[in-house]
Each structure stands twice: as structure tokens, then as C-alpha cells.
Design a protein that fits this description.
Elements (H helix, E strand, L loop, with lengths): L3 E2 L10 H4 L8 E12 L9 H11 L5 E7 L4 E6 L6 H9 L4 E10 L23 H5 L2 H6 L8 E6 L23 E6 L24 H10 L15 E6 L9 H13 L4 E4 L1 E4 L6 H11 L4 E4 L12 E2 L7 E7 L5 E10 L3 E9 L7 E7 L25 E5 L5 H9 L5 E5 L17 E5 L1 H12 L4 E13 L28 E6 L1 E4 L7 E4 L2 H18 L5 H11 L4 E3 L4 E5 L2 H4 L6 H6 L2 E3 L4 E2 L9 E8 L5 E9 L2 E3 L16 E2 L4 E4 L3 E4 L4 E9 L10 E11 L4 E9 L17 E4 L13 E5 L18 E6 L4 E10 L11 E3 L2 E3 L1 E2 L5 E4 L4 E5 L13 E10 L11 E5 L3 E6 L1
Parallel strand pairs: 6-8, 6-9, 7-8, 9-11, 11-13, 13-21, 16-17, 17-18, 18-19, 27-36, 38-48
Antiparallel strand pairs: 1-10, 2-4, 2-5, 3-4, 10-12, 14-15, 14-20, 15-19, 16-20, 22-23, 24-25, 26-28, 28-34, 29-33, 29-35, 30-31, 30-35, 32-34, 35-36, 37-39, 39-45, 40-43, 40-44, 40-46, 41-42, 46-47, 46-48
């Protein structure tokens, strides 16, 4: 599996309105011919297992090429490539049948999520003199630092893109020979610069990397030393380990991630953190399985909950969805740190002025050009969202001014680029600034100015004035104004759960929106990033402080303390804060409270309570309160509901809502065996909880209710135990909806995936039997391509071939699968553990999963997706849809 770096562009409060297209498809791929195997009997595999295994594969004509050894006390296996010209379904089946193989997985992958930063600086123009850091105040880390807790004696392993350890705030060197080796004392580069996820890693012992800023930024959040910007890491005296799993571009395979996690575990890490992930929501992926094993073996792991909050509910992320893993959501910083670069302008050649701007992801070169506005109305909401009029002048020698809003930056850029524009200044439609994401290759530079500056310019242009703008990039100033819109509330990009099996995630949230930290020196040394990537190392640092104070804390206890000592936050949709709590499946236990996590005398034995769906409803649950203090404590028990979120819209659609989902205040009723309970010092007591489902909900819309059980002790301890459940039966939820257009047949030559007409004839080369390719390059022939998409997640998707009704009688090798007579599954299927909002392709070369080639003829494909909690042997538990018929012919 390839996984995304869980980072976003440094965001203004309303950025998500323009980031996500609700119709976008999330495609999941695999490394062609790539596999991971886990061997049986992990503790006693003979040393010649690898050579024997590869010898057996060679006898089967698979031509294996070794990729990685995955050998540890927790996982004994290999990753490798086989000939991509083989029928991969048969390959997987043959490997799984081998006696020494416990399980085989394809090396799955996700496309890397693009991310960018605000402009960087070397610190020479800082205007702040404050000794406090806003995110530390938010998480009460400052109070622990004042007590002398700084992570001393703990080892935090960072699985990421590598680190620029030459940075003075990160120690300036690496390894045991370094006199300042307290920071980057351990680590390893598992992949090399040229690794992109599909090719074979080239490891070396040095985890240095300056070509990707992500890992350096994460390292600074955990453990940065004092610097010109008056901040430190959450655990500035912790020992850091850097385990590089990304090259300079591309993604990371799950074999590499398994190797990195097990290496960090065996290096003695006290905490392992990874700001990596991708849409999933299932607990069975190989990397997720290994991370859960590491937690069970005694090492806590913090994982980013993910940045696809725009996708709505039931959109968990690997490996944050793992059992026992601490999944971390993101909260926006109460300040908006920003490096503002300044330019100058003149109005009618007489009035000099200065303005601040943030460069786009593509940068903003030095230019001096006349300003031209698309609209003379500074209140327009969809500026440049439609093609410009035919009489638009040539914009080649203009600096084009466009108001942000309604459509993406790239849409606006493309519409002005059609008239020659090369440079753009966007002006914001909200307070503060954000760095616009522009990828159009015709645009050479872009930046954003404030709403006020843009409106002033538009007014001058509308009055007939001429404005000349000069950008030279000489002056950059750091400031950190208050964020009064979303500060202290959940970031709109933070992923929503529950998981596909109704587990409650995330466990906790932390500052992750607009975070100042270290960057590689060649990129300026410091910068601002946003994402659950930034929240996750913050929590890892908090765990280091907890471990310094209480070295004997086990992962289960750490997870429960974090989840119950957090501060629940009210909901914010990116513009407005409401008077009800954000759903638990967005925020977990709320904002992390490091001081309470260290000093609480009260420990709850669970991080949250999952009441599941109505078909598996846990009507009575329990939790244990342990008093670790020196005196008896009486606890008062109560509850408060969070908002109930509807998964589906109210128009009858089966496609889940995008952010923000409809929220209502109708919640569950919680009852206790007693409204108060006394617990003696050093003792534990069990609390019985019964829950009554919310009333007056539209159950067909899959409502997810949640809230917090409040536990207030006479000693001052105040805890909040999150709970959540689904007020409908998940097995009733549609997972495959033919009305959405899926499944359908397209052509392997069509990257836009347009459905072909019914009856389309495809001519297939007999010599071409791969299921991983696209077009037969020797003949230019086109191959039928099955396109499948889900509206809800499914653990099993079948694709069975049906002959046309008129020719059924001519086939003797039919088989009845789930009550339907078919020729069998097409090669490359069945597919397992797919997330929702996911679309993927399976090319059909006329070969079935057992290696048989079907005769030329007319066929359709019956796709069946198992509903959540469905019985894989029961046909009634599947949603099914059939493609239009198509015809295949063969050439030799």
C-alpha cells in the first residue's frame, strides 16, 4: 500500500471550500507484480526460508525479484516482485496455498497527497518577542515544561521523509559520534533518494534528507531546541530517531512501513509516531496489523487520523484505524503564524504603497507589471470561475487580480491563462492569508494578498487609476496574529470516522492547523504547515512527557488517559462556531491536555465506548475507574451529548455527504448504575452504563450519535469518556449503487474513464495475459476495463463474468457463485477491504481468476459488493449491479 503524507497546505480558515471536489474519486492501486508474504511460525522459520521460497516461485515460472526482508520478532516475511505478465490472481492464490505462507497481500498503494508550505525565512526578521508558544498553551504543555518535564530519557522514533539534522534547532549532527547527539541519535534511511514507492528501495544508514520538508517539520514539533522564533518542541529533551520511508518524490509502500516500524521497535523506541496514511477504515491491512502488534507488545504508536475531512463520515485512515493505535485529529492553532513577504505598488505613478503577500505553491518570482482585475466588483463570489469574455485583452504582460471563492485556484488560473496570463495575485475572501495551490503549467507565479488590499486595488482600478506592482522578495516579516475564527476548534480537513467496523476514532486531537516548526535549512529553516501530520507529533511529544513522569505506563493506559483527559471542543464549520460539541467521530476526546494527562490520579480503563450499530447494539457497557491517588475519591457521573451527524443527505442519495455533514442535537440518553461512586485509594470500581438510542432520527440517513460521560472527582480530577454509536443497521446501508453509474466498462486507453457504448467490440492479443497493464503496445489494441466505485466501504467485492443470454448454453464450464451461474471471477478479483468514495480499475484480458481464457464472445460482468457486517456466503448480503454487454475478439 502506498500512503499519503498527512499534511495540507498552510490553510486559511475557509480553505476547504475550494480544496475538495465532492465528486472526486479516490483511487487505490497496487505495485504491479508486488507482494508481501508473512510466513507461518514467526519465531522459528529456518534461515533458508527465503531461498527455498524463491526457488518454489521460480519453479512456478513467476521469476521473483527480491524487494525487502521483513524479519523481526513481530513479523517474519518478505516483499518481492513477480513477472507482471502473469495472471496475478493465480499468482496470489498459488502463493497463499504454499504451506509456509500465513498470508499474502499485494503491495497496495495510494497516490501521495500534495502538500505545500507558507514562505520560509532564516529568522532574520522575526518581530515576535514572546516566550510562550501558542500550541503549547493550548495543550497545557507549557505547565509541564515549567515543572521540568521535557521528555528527558525518552526515545521518540519518527517514521517520515527523513530529517535535516544539520539544522541547529535539531542538534546540528547525527549519531553517536555527534557531541549533540541527544536529538537525532538514531535512525536509518530505508529507501534512498530515488525511491518512489514502486521501485526497489536502496537503504543506507544515514536518514538525512533536505529534499522533502515534512519530516524536518515533524521532528521540530516533537523536539526542537530554542530558536529565533521562541519555541521548542513538546519534548525538547527527548532522544529522536529518524526512519526515512519516502524518497524525494512519490510514496511509501507498506512493506517499507512495516520494516521501519519493526526496526524502530527493536531499536528500543518508547514512542513511535508516523504522520502517514491513506483512506481505508479496515483493521486488516498488513501495515495496520503490524502497528497493532507493536502496541500490544508494549510500544505506544501515534498515527495521523488523515486530512480527508471533506469526505464526511466513515472515512478512516490506515494505520490510524488499527486496534490500540492512538489516532490523532487536528485542531486549528489559536494563532495564525505567517511569513509575509512584502512588495510595493504605485497608483497613477504618484502614490507609493507597501503590501504583504503569501506566495503560491509554485512560488512568486520577482516581477514588475501593471495590475489588471478580472472584475471591478470586489464582492463578486465567483471571480474567474467561468471562461472570460472573448474581448478580454492579452494578459501576457499583466499581473492579474482575482478574488478567491467558489471554484478552485486552478480553475481561475486556467481561465486567465487562456488569454496569456502568467502571473496572478489572488485576494482573499476571508481574514488572514493562505498560500494558494496552483498547478497550471501556464502560470509562472502566483500569490495571495489580503481581502482589504484586493478591495482597495479594485476600487482604484474601477475609478480609472493605473496600478503598477513591484515584487522583489527582499523583505519577509514573521507575525502571529490571533485566529478568532477557527482557533481552538477542529480543523475542517481533519478526518471523520467511525471506522468501517464502527470502532470509535480518533482517540484525541491536538494543534495541527497553521503550525510553525523547523524546515530544511536550504528551504529557509522555518515555516508553517497544516495537517494531522502536525497534530500527531505533538501528541507523541505529550506521550514522551507522560513516559518521563511515569515510565511504567503501558500503551493501553496511555491511550485511555489521553482519550479521557482531553478537552472537548464545540463544532466549527470553518466560518462559525456553534454551541454544541463536535461529534466524537471528528474530535475523539477533544483537545489534548498534557498537564491533566500527567497529573490525573484517576485512570479509566478504556479510551472510549463504542455502542456499535443497532444490529449489534451494546445496550449495556461498563468501564473501570481506578484511583491511583493517596486518598479516597468520590466521583459524580453525568453525560453531555455531542452533535449527531447524518452520514447521508436528506434527498435519498446513497452517497455520503461532504463536509460539513448535517448535524442535529438529538442524542442518546445515558444511564448509570449509580450517579456517584466512591473509590478508595489504590482501588478500582466498575461502572455499568446503559444507553437509550436517540429519538426522532431519520435512520435511513445513517445517523452517528456521540457524547461524553463526565467523571468529576472530589479531588479535582475531571475526565470525559467519549462514546459513539450508529443509530441504524450498517448492513442495511447501500455500498454499491448502480444509480451512481458504477460499475461500467471503459477502455484501458481512456484515462478519463468514460463508459463505452453497450456492445463495444474489443480485440485482445492472445499473447497479452497481464492484468496489470493497459494497452498491448505491440498492436495498439484496446482492452476492456472494469471500473468499480463504492458509496460505502466493503470488505469483499466480486466481479463474475456472465456470457450473453443467447450463448449461455454453449458454455460447459459454468459455476454457480452465490446463486448465480457464471463463468467465474475475472482475473484480479475478488477485491478485499476497500474504502468508500473509492474507484478502481480491473483490466479484463479474457482471463478468469483460475487462469482459464474464455472464448471470443459477448459478455457482461456482475459486480457484487458485500455490505458492512454482511455474511460473505449469503447472496442477500451483497449489493449487485451488472455492466452493459461488451464483445471480445482475439488476435494472435
Amino acid at each position: 500500500m502506498w500512503f499519503n503524507i498527512a499534511t495540507l497546505l498552510a490553510l486559511a480558515p475557509s480553505v476547504l471550500a475550494a480544496v475538495t471536489d465532492s465528486s472526486a474519486e479516490k483511487k487505490r492501486n497496487v505495485v504491479p507484480g508486488g507482494y508481501i508474504v508473512e510466513f507461518e511460525d514467526v519465531m522459528s522459520i529456518a534461515s533458508d526460508t527465503k531461498s527455498s521460497f524463491y526457488s518454489d516461485l521460480s519453479k512456478k515460472k513467476m521469476n521473483p525479484t527480491h524487494r525487502m526482508d521483513l524479519s523481526s520478532s513481530l513479523f517474519k516475511g518478505l516483499s518481492f516482485h513477480v513477472d507482471t505478465g502473469l495472471d496475478q490472481a493465480v499468482v496470489a492464490s498459488d502463493i497463499q496455498a504454499m504451506p509456509i505462507v500465513r498470508k499474502v497481500w499485494p503491495i497496495s498503494l495510494y497516490d501521495t497527497q500534495d502538500f505545500a508550505t507558507a514562505p520560509y525565512t532564516n529568522g532574520s526578521n522575526s518581530t515576535t518577542s514572546s516566550d510562550t508558544f501558542s500550541t503549547h498553551l493550548m495543550g497545557h504543555v507549557d505547565r509541564l515544561h515549567a515543572e521540568g518535564l521535557t521528555g528527558n530519557g525518552t526515545f521518540v522514533a519518527i517514521i517520515d521523509t527523513g530529517v535535516d539534522y544539520l539544522h541547529p534547532a535539531l542538534g546540528g549532527c547525527f549519531g553517536p559520534g555527534c557531541k549533540h547527539n541527544r536529538l537525532l541519535a538514531k535512525g536509518y534511511d530505508l529507501v534512498g533518494d530515488d525511491y518512489d514507492g514502486t521501485n526497489t528501495p536502496v537503504p543506507d544508514p544515514d536518514p538525512y534528507s533536505a529534499c522533502n520538508e515534512h519530516g524536518t517539520h515533524v521532528a521540530g514539533i516533537v523536539g526542537a531546541d530554542p530558536n529565533p522564533y521562541n519555541f521548542t518542541g513538546v519534548a525538547p529533551d527527548a532522544i529522536l530517531g529518524a526512519y526515512r520511508v519516502f524518497g524525494c518524490s512519490g510514496s511509501a509502500g507498506d512493506d517499507v512501513l512495516i520494516d521501519a516500524f519493526t526496526r524502530a521497535y527493536e531499536d528500543g523506541a518508547d514512542i513511535i509516531t508516523a504522520s502517514i496514511g491513506g483512506p481505508n477504515g479496515w483493521t486488516e491491512e498488513p501495515w495496520t496489523v503490524v502497528v497493532s502488534r507493536i502496541v500490544a507488545a508494549g510500544t505506544p504508536c501515534t498515527l495521523a487520523a488523515g486530512n480527508d475531512g471533506s469526505e464526511g463520515l466513515f472515512y478512516g485512515s490506515s494505520a490510524a484505524d488499527g486496534i490500540g493505535v492512538i489516532a490523532v485529529g487536528s485542531i486549528d492553532n489559536i494563532e495564525s503564524p505567517v511569513f509575509t513577504t512584502y512588495g510595493t505598488y504605485t497608483v497613477d505613478n504618484s502614490t507609493d504603497g507597501q503590501f504583504g503577500y503569501l506566495a503560491a505553491s509554485i512560488g512568486m518570482p520577482n516581477v514588475s507589471l501593471p495590475l489588471w482585475a478580472v472584475s471591478k466588483d470586489s464582492t463578486i463570489v465567483d471571480d474567474a470561475c467561468e471562461p472570460l469574455p472573448a474581448d478580454t485583452p492579452d494578459l501576457t504582460e499583466k499581473l492579474v487580480l482575482i478574488r478567491r471563492g467558489t471554484c478552485t485556484f486552478d480553475t481561475k488560473a486556467a481561465n486567465v491563462a487562456a488569454f496569456g496570463a502568467q502571473y496572478i495575485l489572488f485576494y482573499n475572501n476571508a481574514p488572514s492569508l493562505t498560500s494558494p495551490s496552483v498547478t497550471d503549467s501556464d502560470i509562472l507565479g502566483a500569490a495571495m494578498v489580503s481581502a482589504e488590499q484586493g478591495a482597495s486595488w479594485v476600487a482604484s482600478l474601477a475609478a480609472g487609476s493605473a496600478i503598477q506592482v513591484n515584487i522583489d522578495g527582499k523583505l519577509t516579516i514573521f507575525s502571529s496574529p490571533a485566529n478568532n475564527i477557527t482557533g481552538g476548534r477542529m480543523s475542517t480537513f481533519s478526518m471523520w470516522n467511525p471506522t468501517n467496523e464502527a470502532y470509535v476514532k480518533p482517540e484525541i486531537s491536538a494543534p495541527g492547523g497553521n503550525i510553525l516548526s523547523t524546515l530544511p535549512l536550504e528551504q529557509g529553516g522555518y515555516g508553517v504547515l497544516s495537517g494531522t501530520s502536525m497534530a500527531t507529533p505533538f501528541v507523541a511529544g505529550v506521550v514522551a512527557l507522560m513516559k518521563q513522569a511515569r515510565p511504567d505506563l503501558e500503551p493501553h493506559t496511555i491511550r485511555s488517559i489521553l482519550g479521557t483527559t482531553g478537552h472537548p471542543v464545540t463544532f466549527n464549520d470553518g466560518k462559525t462556531t456553534y454551541d454544541y460539541f463536535a461529534p466524537v467521530v471528528q474530535q475523539g476526546g477533544g483537545e489534548v491536555n498534557a498537564f491533566a494527562a500527567v497529573h490525573t490520579s484517576t485512570v479509566i480503563d478504556v479510551a472510549n465506548l463504542a455502542f456499535n450499530d443497532t444490529a449489534h447494539f451494546v445496550q449495556e457497557a461498563n468501564f473501570t475507574i481506578t484511583n491511583r491517588g493517596n486518598s479516597d475519591i468520590t466521583y459524580n457521573l453525568d453525560y453531555v451529548n455531542a452533535a449527531t451527524a447524518y452520514t447521508l443527505p436528506d434527498d435519498g442519495s446513497t452517497q455520503p455527504q461532504t463536509f460539513p455533514p448535517d448535524l442535529v442535537t438529538s442524542g442518546a440518553s445515558v444511564h448509570f448504575s449509580s450517579g456517584s461512586i466512591s473509590v478508595a485509594a489504590g482501588k478500582s470500581e466498575v461502572v455499568i452504563v446503559t444507553l437509550s438510542l436517540p429519538k426522532d432520527l431519520a435512520t435511513a440517513r445513517i445517523p452517528v450519535y456521540s457524547g461524553f460521560i463526565t467523571i468529576n472527582g472530589t479531588n479535582g480530577d475531571s475526565l470525559n469518556l467519549p462514546y459513539a454509536g450508529v443509530a441504524s443497521s450498517l448492513k442495511d446501508a447501500t455500498v454499491l449503487d448502480a444509480s451512481t453509474g458504477y460499475p461500467y466498462i471503459t477502455s484501458t486507453s481512456d484515462n478519463t474513464f468514460v463508459p463505452v457504448d453497450a456492445g463495444t467490440v474489443f480485440t485482445i492479443s492472445i499473447a497479452n495475459t497481464t492484468v496489470n497493464g493497459t494497452t498491448d503496445n505491440s498492436t495498439g489494441l484496446l482492452i476492456p476495463n472494469l471500473r468499480i466505485g463504492l458509496v460505502m466501504p466493503s470488505s469483499l467485492i466480486r466481479a463474475d463474468l456472465l456470457p450473453s443470454n443467447s450463448t449461455y448454453g454453449t458454455y460447459t464450464n459454468t459455476t454457480t457463485i452465490l446463486g448465480v451461474k457464471t463463468l467465474g471471477a475475472i482475473a484480479g478479483t475478488p477485491s478485499v477491504y476497500q474504502p468508500r468514495a473509492n474507484a478502481w480499475n480491473t483490466a479484463f484480458y479474457g482471463v478468469l481468476d483460475d487462469g482459464r481464457r474464455v472464448p471470443a464472445g459477448t459478455y457482461s460482468i456482475l459486480v457484487r459488493a458485500l455490505r458492512i457486517f454482511g455474511d460473505a456466503t449469503n447472496p442477500d448480503d451483497y449489493d449487485s449491479a451488472e455492466t452493459e454487454p461488451f464483445t471480445i475478439r482475439y488476435v494472435h
